[in-house]
């Protein structure tokens, strides 16, 4: 195949992929809005409360409870910040660029989550429901959406989106998805969230990941490339080996 034609096919595939990501991302925004309205108007409160009590009251034993508490308390910042740092410090240029993209999505997720919590308040199940066993300290901010689910699912969806071509990388993405599911389930188990808090956070994470990556590729590709080059130079100056 002639080189210009091959490049044309590649560009057409890239545009098609971006359009599909944008359409899917917008659909997830609509789903998130629908879930939010259901929560705001208490349409789902009865089933949400029943599920929260059922999950929270199903004692899993000392070992599994300790795992759930650890996942709930350390599965967000203490898990993802080191991953981004390792990618940025020890990654090759492409990996460093991925770390910058992921960090940007995390920042958007934090801002969006905090804005939602500021715009609406939902009491935590531990403060609102009799019979909830609090296994972590009770937070005072809004229960909806789950900030933990939002961040860990951004990481998992990012990996699933970026690592679809390599079999080994797909395995890593699958592990990260399991981690996101574990953290999200643990937030309900320890009494910190209702199930719909977690579902809303996960859906918002999908929207931010897909729309964010499309925006980064279209509008900030040059900036990410320059930041990646700067990170490569900084790592080289510090004699950090590029092994990822």
Polypeptide structure, described:
The chain is mainly alpha-helical and 244 residues long. The protein has a single domain (3-237), classed as Vanadium-containing Chloroperoxidase, domain 1 (Up-down Bundle), CATH 1.20.144. The protein is built from ten helices and no strands. The chain has helices at residues 3-40, 45-57, 62-74, 77-90, 93-119, 125-128, 147-162, 167-189, 195-219, 221-237. α3 crosses α8 and α5 (93-119) crosses α10. The longest helix is centred in the first third of the chain and has 38 residues, at 3-40. 34% of the residues are buried. The model has no long low-confidence stretch (mean pLDDT 92).
- Low-pLDDT stretches are none
Secondary-structure element series: HHHHHHHHHH
Structural class, by secondary structure, is mainly alpha
Tally of strands: 0
Shape: globular
Features:
244 residues, mainly alpha, Vanadium-containing Chloroperoxidase, domain 1, 10 helices, globular
């Amino acid at each position: 195949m002639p080189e210009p034609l091959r490049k044309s096919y590649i560009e057409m595939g890239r545009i098609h992929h971006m359009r599909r990501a944008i359409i899917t991302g917008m659909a997830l925004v609509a789903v998130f809005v629908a879930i939010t309205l259901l929560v705001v108007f208490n349409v789902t409160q009865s089933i949400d409360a029943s599920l929260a009590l059922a999950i929270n009251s199903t004692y899993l034993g000392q070992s599994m409870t300790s795992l759930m508490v650890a996942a709930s308390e350390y599965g967000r910042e203490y898990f993802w910040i080191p991953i981004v740092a390792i990618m940025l410090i020890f990654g090759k240029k492409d990996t460093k660029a991925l770390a910058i993209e992921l960090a940007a999505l995390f920042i958007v997720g934090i801002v969006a989550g905090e804005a939602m919590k500021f715009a609406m308040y939902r009491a935590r199940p531990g403060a609102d429901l009799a019979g909830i066993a609090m296994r972590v300290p009770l937070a005072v901010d809004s229960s909806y959406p789950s900030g933990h689910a939002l961040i860990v699912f951004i990481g998992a969806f990012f990996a699933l989106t970026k690592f679809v071509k390599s079999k080994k990388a797909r395995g890593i993405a699958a592990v990260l998805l399991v981690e996101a599911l574990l953290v999200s389930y643990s937030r309900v188990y320890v009494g910190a969230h209702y199930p719909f808090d977690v579902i809303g956070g996960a859906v918002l994470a999908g929207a931010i990941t897909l729309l964010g990556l499309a925006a980064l590729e279209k509008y900030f590709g040059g900036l990410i490339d320059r930041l990646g080059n700067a990170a490569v130079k900084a790592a080289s100056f510090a004699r950090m080996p590029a092994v990822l």
